From TrEMBL:
Pfam family, one: Rng_hyd_C
FAD-binding domain sequence ranges: 4-343
Name used for this protein in its record: 2-polyprenyl-6-methoxyphenol hydroxylase-like FAD-dependent oxidoreductase
Native source species: Nocardia tenerifensis
GO terms assigned for molecular function: FAD binding; oxidoreductase activity, acting on paired donors, with incorporation or reduction of molecular oxygen, NAD(P)H as one donor, and incorporation of one atom of oxygen
Superkingdom to which the source organism belongs: Bacteria
Record keywords: FAD, Flavoprotein
Cofactor(s) listed: FAD
Length: 539
């Protein structure tokens, strides 16, 4: 029976599963289909960033993953056999996950699919999208059983293509996706073998190309390198051993090779970013929207963050609380994220493969100096953990535009007490009005603001008071915590009593002084946009 759902998600890789878990937590009806009969068995993406773990923590999947992975708190940089620099994620403040988690993608997908089942959802496997009729008020998808024996129509308000780099949704929606062949050829395999360091990633810079050794939880290692020549060259055990002896001098002894997802052969990759992430009622996330190449650790992490950004916006639009224009901010914000990720991946490879000797000496000397002074941690860790990536304020209508206001930035996950952190105050699909710096004498003003939000935006804004001391409040429904040592206040740079409007994805939308907090209502109106249907639904 073709019962209309709010959203049809095509593809149950990390991006589609993240979106499904987010939507189910926000009470949105959806179907999620995947043409494959099972989740991936390959290790593929092995590095999950701190920010992606925060996203997975929203719906209770991060802890299970952390249990199954290796916490890599450090990365070491070597010039040939000599270590030149080291960075440490342990310097990260105000984050529950101060490390890069090394865990195979097969485990990530398994954990996400199990979490979706626990939350009440199911992936329909062996079901492929084969047709899409895009209308102004809905989409009618044709889906087929994997054996081709049957087809059925699925009517949905929206379709999200989480269907990987060859995305059918992207093609049906006519979204251009120009890619270029990356100049490098890659060799990526997992190996069983002997090696001493098992809790850190090691990057080796060599005039001949770069190499990477990272630990995996079952005692094996991911080996990756840029190599010369065409793709398709078989990577034998002897070839890999010789390459890593020559480039790294790490002493790794390779005993057995295992396919990481691209065959045991050298590969060429194509990189690119789709020019749009939305066309009418079709949206794309993850590899359907971008392809960065395998070494920067951006692909899966980017897809998880696409889904986090899209989920709350799509949920508000489906519930009729926000207008379709809110979805355009998804495209603007995540296209911005994609171009930063592409730049990071490209410059990382360039830095590692510098050939002129003088420039290499200079690079190594600067990296060494950066390690001693701590500058390298300050420069690289925020990008590698993806915690510092903010969105341009102008992408979200209504958000504060002044750079000092920090709209679009992630609110730091400061520990308020031994058991509660700032991100614990956020609720799925709701904005949070975080009242900080208030005094006991501000109680009636706080209650007035809470009543105002409830009257203007019923159920959409949760007021939370975070004072330096307890404030007596007679109104029910206002959560309160005490920031006794003032760490949160210092971190949020709050001098006078203020209200911070925090988006459902933990990013700041706007802030006002307590006396002007009601202005945040009109900010929210602008963010949500008009709920009247847009005339030009297809761009
Ligand atoms: C060897 C290798 C190493 C990598 N290393 C890293 C890394 O270290 N870090 C990192 O971040 N990324 C890495 N990546 C990239 C990472 O694997 C991808 O970015 C990630 O899988 C993208 O997730 P996704 O959910 O967007 O798409 P996918 O994982 O590609 O999932 C798409 C899903 O859609 C389904 N599908 C496709 N078409 C249809 C259709 N018509 N109907 C129904 N279902 C459909 C597919 O069966 C699939 O399950 C690596 C990739 C490879 C191959």
């Amino acid at each position: 029976m073709n019962e209309r759902v709010d959203v049809l998600i095509v593809g149950a890789g990390p991006s589609g599963l993240t979106l499904a878990c987010e939507l189910i937590s926000q009470g949105i009806s959806f179907r999620i289909i995947d043409k494959s009969m099972s989740s991936t068995k390959a290790s593929r993406a092995i590095g999950i960033s701190a920010r992606a773990l925060e996203v997975l923590h929203h719906f209770g999947a991060a802890e299970q993953l952390v249990e199954r992975g290796v916490r890599c708190g450090h990365a070491h940089f070597h010039s040939g056999a000599r270590q030149t620099a080291k960075i440490s994620a342990e310097t990260v403040r105000h984050c529950r996950f101060p490390f890069m988690l090394s865990v195979p993608q097969s485990a990530t997908e398994e954990v996400l699919e199990r979490r979706l089942t626990e939350l009440g959802g199911t992936v329909e496997r062996g079901v492929e999208l084969v047709g899409l009729d895009i209308r102004t008020d809905s989409v009618i998808a044709t889906v087929a059983a994997a054996d081709g024996a049957s087809e059925e129509p699925v009517t949905a308000g929206w379709v999200v293509g989480a269907d990987g780099s060859h995305s059918a949704v992207r093609k049906f929606a006519g979204i251009p996706f120009d890619t270029q062949e990356a100049p490098e050829t890659f060799m990526i395999v997992d190996v069983f073998g002997e090696r001493s360091s098992t809790d850190a990633g090691h990057y080796y810079f060599h005039p001949d190309g770069m190499a990477l050794i990272a630990p995996l939880p079952d005692g094996s290692f991911r080996l990756a390198a840029t190599v010369h020549g065409a793709q398709g060259r078989a990577t034998t055990l002897e070839y890999v051993q010789e390459l890593f002896d020559r480039r790294t001098g790490s002493g790794i002894r390779v005993r057995e090779l295992r396919d990481a997802g691209w065959g045991v052969a050298t590969v060429k990759v194509r990189t690119g970013i789709a020019s749009r992430y939305r066309s009418g009622r079709c949206l794309i996330v993850g590899d359907a929207a971008h392809s960065y190449g395998p070494l920067g650790g951006q692909g899966m992490n980017g897809g998880i963050q696409d889904s986090c950004n899209l989920a709350w916006k799509l949920a508000l639009v489906c519930r009729g609380v926000a207008g379709e224009s809110l979805l355009d901010s998804y495209e603007k914000e995540r296209l911005h994220g994609a171009s930063l990720a592409m730049r990071a991946a490209t410059s990382q490879t360039r830095l590692a493969t510098i050939r002129p000797r003088v420039v290499r000496y200079l690079r190594d000397a600067l990296l060494g100096l950066g390690t001693v002074t701590g500058l390298l941690d300050r420069l690289l860790i925020p990008t590698l953990t993806q915690l510092s990536i903010g969105y341009p304020a102008e992408a979200l209508p209504g958000a504060d535009q002044a750079a000092s206001a920090q709209a679009g930035r992630r609110v730091p996950d400061v520990a308020i007490s031994a058991t509660v952190r700032v991100h614990d105050l956020l609720q799925p699909g709701r904005f949070t009005a975080l009242v900080v710096g208030a005094r006991p004498t501000d109680s009636s003003e706080i209650e007035g603001i809470a009543k105002h939000f409830e009257a203007r935006h019923r159920g959409l804004v949760s007021p939370v008071v975070l004072g330096r001391e307890a404030i007596a409040l007679s109104l029910d429904g206002i959560e309160q915590h005490v920031d006794a040592d003032g760490v949160v206040h210092a971190e949020l740079a709050v001098g006078r009593p203020s209200v911070l409007l925090v988006r459902p994805d933990g990013r700041l939308a706007a802030r006002r002084s307590l006396s002007k907090a009601e202005e945040l209502s009109s900010v929210l109106d602008q963010v949500l946009g008009s709920t009247a249907p847009l005339v030009a639904a297809t761009r």
